[in-house]
Write a structure and sequence with these properties.
The complex is a heterodimer of chains A (312) and B (120). By secondary structure, chain A is mainly alpha-helical. Chain A contains 14 helices and four strands. In chain A, strands 1-2-4-3 form a four-stranded mixed β-sheet, sandwiched between helices. Chain A is elongated, with a radius of gyration of 24 Å. The relative contact order of chain A is 0.15. With 120 residues, chain B is of the alpha+beta class. Chain B folds into two domains: 67 residues, Arc Repressor Mutant, subunit A (Orthogonal Bundle); 48 residues, no CATH class. A two-stranded antiparallel ribbon of chain B has the order 1-2. The chains are: A mainly alpha (312), B alpha+beta (120). Chains A and B meet through helix 1, helix 5, strand 3, helix 7 and helix 8 of A and helix 1, helix 4, strand 3 and helix 5 of B. Strand 3 of chain A pairs antiparallel with strand 3 of chain B, so a sheet runs across the interface.
């Protein structure tokens, strides 16, 4: 009972505390992709930790006999409640967990279907209205004066851009914008965004889940910026962001993005180490593993502390 | 299906370049797709375009005359408007270069930025 409770508490704490810590790391110049993966891994970790807690409640000996040998007082701690209460708690937990996970699956499938429909509609319209420049990914050019760029998910995805980019930006800056959009497609950022949305819709109770959509959107922009900087240099990306956001008419969609563009500009000014691929792979792996085991370690550390205090 | 989509674009291109409504036969003779197309193919494509609202038609004598419902520039502007609106949708199928979803997260990030860069 106590172990299960400790696991649930740490899972909850992680769900509440992780968001702010992760955003702080973004601002310090940590690779946004590492944080993105850590965020999603943390979400998985909170769920699995909760599942572990439920399993412990349901196991007849609470899986604790190995630990019980460690200290005599363990048994008094593990049996804080009668077995009947624990079993009931376990069953309720199991039902809740299975219910929530099936909800997640339903939400994801529904979302995927809706997105496929949207994509078809957009492509049908663009096929007629835009001029297609072949490539991988292809770029669809719209003859429009406002400088705009989008990436449209899919296999293959496409970049959509307006001729306004050529009219308002230099060649290097246009390249930077296109590199940014291609990074979205190459990095499958639309899928990450979809995962964040599904998690928030299906499990809307902890900040870690609730804020996933906004944070994932923010982080994929930063990741794409970083990719564009690697391809075209920081000056071109900065100038492109300024050029594109400065031209929005007040009240238009662009004006809404201005705040976030300012933050992106400031982050571009923050010096960042150029990640080499071996080191970043290591970082991605370490971040995911850390996110997965932190709640369990925290729970057992907490319990150990309680044992030490209670039994001395 | 894919081929038909490309034909739609080619047919619209012909209609946009023309100064007046065109008959199917005129569209067929102006189409430059690299291969000879059947009259019925072009008719089907124009039918599809009419159903989707890209072209309007008027019966003159025995034949329909087709013309675009919007200019090419208007079509591009409509497409842009649709994309800008869709990039705010929560379905995440589109990502927009200079737009982000939330004021709240931006504010948190701004607060977390190192002082040095905030003072600028």
């Amino acid at each position: 009972m106590t172990v299960a409770a400790a696991l649930l508490v740490t899972a909850g704490l992680m769900g509440v505390l992780a968001p702010r810590q992760l955003l702080r790391l973004v601002a310090r110049g940590t690779d946004p992709l590492v944080l993105l993966l850590t965020w999603l891994a943390s979400a998985v970790s909170v769920v699995t930790t909760a599942a572990l807690a439920v399993t412990l409640l349901l196991l007849p000996d609470h899986g604790s006999h190995a630990l019980a040998l460690a200290h005599e007082c363990w048994s008094s701690l593990t049996h804080g409640m009668t077995p009947r209460v624990e079993a009931t708690g376990g069953v309720v937990g199991l039902v809740l967990l299975v219910g929530l996970l099936s909800r997640l699956v339903v939400v994801s499938v529904r979302g995927a279907r809706r997105r496929a429909g949207r994509r078809r509609d957009h492509l049908a319209m663009l096929r007629v209205a835009a001029h297609r420049e072949p490539g991988s990914p292809a770029t669809l050019w719209l003859d429009h004066d406002e400088p705009l760029a989008f990436s449209l998910a899919g296999t293959p995805g496409v970049v959509v851009a307006t001729e306004g980019l050529h009219r308002r930006l230099t060649r290097e800056q246009v390249d930077a914008v296109l590199a940014h959009e291609r990074a979205h497609l190459r990095g499958r950022h639309h899928l990450l965004v979809a995962a964040g949305d599904a998690v928030a819709t299906a499990l809307p109770f902890l900040p870690l889940f609730r804020r996933a959509p906004a944070v994932v959107r923010e982080l994929v922009e930063l990741a794409a910026d970083a990719a564009a900087v690697r391809a075209c240099g920081v000056d071109a990306v900065r100038a492109a962001l300024l050029g594109v956001s400065g031209n929005g008419t007040p009240g238009s969609a662009l004006a809404m993005g201005r705040d976030s563009v300012e933050v992106r500009l400031e982050l571009l000014a923050t010096p960042r180490r150029r990640p080499d691929s071996a080191r970043s792979l290591l970082a991605y792996g370490a971040a995911c593993v850390a996110a997965m085991v932190i709640p369990v370690i925290a729970a057992f550390t907490g319990l150990l502390a309680v044992i030490l205090v209670a039994c001395h | 299906m894919h081929g038909l989509g490309e034909l739609e674009a080619a047919v619209m291109d012909v209609l946009w370049r023309a100064s007046e409504p065109m008959k199917v036969r005129d569209v067929l003779s102006d189409l430059d797709t690299g291969k000879q197309l059947a009259y019925t193919t072009v008719l089907t494509v124009l039918d599809n375009l009419h159903r989707k609202g890209w072209v309007q038609r008027e019966l003159v004598g025995k034949a329909y005359h087709y013309e675009p419902t919007t200019s090419r520039a208007e079509a591009a502007a409509n497409a842009v408007r649709e994309l800008v609106n869709a990039s705010g949708d929560p379905d995440g199928v589109l990502l927009h270069f200079a737009r982000s979803a939330s004021e709240h997260e931006t504010e948190l990030l701004r607060k977390a930025l190192p002082r040095r860069s905030r003072k600028r």
